[in-house]
Design goal:
With 422 residues, this protein is an alpha+beta fold. Helices cover 32% and strands 24% of the residues. The protein has 14 helices and 21 strands. The protein has helices at residues 30-39, 45-48, 55-69, 121-134, 151-158, 184-193, 205-220, 262-269, 281-293, 327-330, 333-343, 350-355, 365-373, 388-396; strands at residues 4-5, 10-12, 72-74, 80-89, 92-104, 113-114, 136-137, 141-145, 166-169, 175-181, 199-203, 232-239, 246-248, 251-254, 273-278, 298-302, 307-312, 359-362, 379-382, 407-409, 419-420. The strands form five sheets. Strands 1, 4, 5, 6, 8, 9, 10, 11 and 12 form a nine-stranded mixed beta sheet that branches. It has a six-stranded antiparallel beta sheet with strand order 15-17-16-19-14-18, sandwiched between helices. The chain starts with a strand and ends with a strand.
């Protein structure tokens, strides 16, 4: 099954780590990028999110200079990096702990590393170009594993009881701690434990697929052979049963539809959904929580004038509309919404969704409401979160959820440790 091992991580050697790290590149605005660099010219954002006409080449040259100057250096011994995030979600203080290691890149068809979500080609091209100049993973794939006997978590937890080697606090108040573990006995045990495990990608599908494609490219060009470090990728591995795991929903904003009519939408939806009026979006959210706890499939529709909660009727058999798909896929909130409403009623096909022609996404309810109130959108659908068990079951069925089905929180910070493989 999964091949997991330690690596000589590349890390910053000097400076305030709080000014050297950054959030994931794909959620950073131009203004935020400038602010990070103003605080510290060595912020990792210069490598992870380069800008300009020759941005990828510039990132490669910057990385080389930083290594030559000692700003960055690789650890001398193979290491795993125990990583804990302490954060607040839904009013509760939580913590999730895993570890960063190298994982052998495998084709999804082998069933060892499993995806759960569709990807976009544009994002993969960007990461491929960056990798071509830097030969580095600046951020980690976020993946889950089953730990029925608790051996994996017990091992890494025992290695992280003392003071962490690195600690930073991000703008959301999340504390990121990391312990560097180079004990050969521990590394050997980790490798052994994961020999019979599957890994489920939670976040980072684009980067995983890019890593696999880039390794194939290097082999085809004669620049690498099977077994080289380019055939591995850095991953954060977390126990799927970890109580600190939090998945936020990603809400749908629908815009630029011809002749949009909310009343007609509701009327046509009544064939599949029970419709319940809600006073406002906040009330609808409270109703959705109850529906979620009761195992119901429900959404809130907001069109600027009214808010209704749509609950799938018990009599509706989704296998009729999602022919050939597994029971797990047919039971997903996002699958039901996309199939019955977005595609069947609105006529927004999968290509349209991929190109975000009539559909955009947000994890923040207020942003969805504001888009409608400002007339930038026709309506918004507020969703419940996808359950971690649903992610596992869809992946095991060899299927992928619609894009933007999950939002794991918090996001891994970029810059604590990096993987330079060539």
């Amino acid at each position: 099954m999964a091949t997991v091992k330690g690596f000589k991580g590349m890390r910053f050697r000097n400076g305030d780590m709080n000014t050297l790290v950054c959030p994931p590149y794909d959620i950073i605005s131009d203004e935020q990028r400038k602010a990070f660099i103003e605080k510290n010219e060595h912020n990792i954002i210069r490598l992870e999110l380069p800008v300009g006409e020759n941005r990828y080449k510039d990132a490669g040259e910057t990385l080389k200079n930083w290594l030559d100057e000692g700003v960055l250096a690789q650890d001398e011994k193979d290491t795993i990096y125990v990583y804990e995030m302490e954060f607040t979600a839904n009013g509760e203080r939580k913590a999730v702990k895993g570890f960063v290691s190298l994982v052998k890149l495998e084709e999804f068809s082998k069933g060892i590393v499993l995806p759960h979500e569709e990807t976009l080609s544009k994002a993969k091209t960007d990461r491929f170009n960056l990798m071509s100049e830097t030969y580095c993973n600046f951020s980690q794939i976020y993946s889950l594993y089953m730990d029925e006997d608790g051996k994996a978590y017990s091992l890494i937890d025992g290695c992280s009881q003392g003071r962490p080697d690195m600690e930073v606090t991000d703008s959301d108040g999340t504390i990121h701690r990391m312990w560097c573990v180079s004990d050969e006995g521990v590394l050997s045990q980790v490798t052994k434990i994961f020999e019979d495990k599957k890994l489920y990608i939670a976040d980072g599908h684009h980067r995983y697929e890019t890593g696999l494609n880039f390794h194939k490219h290097l082999v085809a060009e004669g620049k690498a052979v099977e077994g080289d470090l380019s055939g591995y990728i850095a991953m954060m591995l977390v126990n799927m049963e970890n109580e600190g795991l939090v998945v936020f929903p990603t809400h749908r904003i629908v815009r630029d539809l011809e002749n949009f009519d909310a009343d007609k939408l509701i009327e046509r939806s009544e064939e599949y959904f029970e419709i319940e009026d809600a006073t406002d979006v906040k009330t609808a959210e409270e109703i959705l929580v109850k529906k979620y706890n009761d195992g119901k499939k429900a959404y809130a529709l907001y069109d600027g004038k009214k808010t209704v909660v749509m609950t799938l009727r018990d009599s509706v058999d989704m296998s009729q509309f999602l022919e050939g798909m597994s029971e797990a896929y047919c039971g997903l909130d996002v699958s039901i919404l996309h199939s019955l409403v977005l595609e069947r009623i609105f006529g927004i096909d999968k290509e349209n969704m991929a190109n975000q022609k009539n559909l955009t996404y947000t994890k923040i309810v207020a942003e969805a409401v504001e888009a409608v109130d400002s007339k930038k959108a026709d309506c918004a659908f507020i969703l419940n979160p996808t359950r971690v068990s649903e992610i596992r079951d869809v992946a095991l069925a060899g299927e992928k959820m619609p894009q933007k089905s999950t939002y794991f929180f918090p996001k891994l910070i970029t810059g604590l440790v990096m993987n330079k493989f060539m």
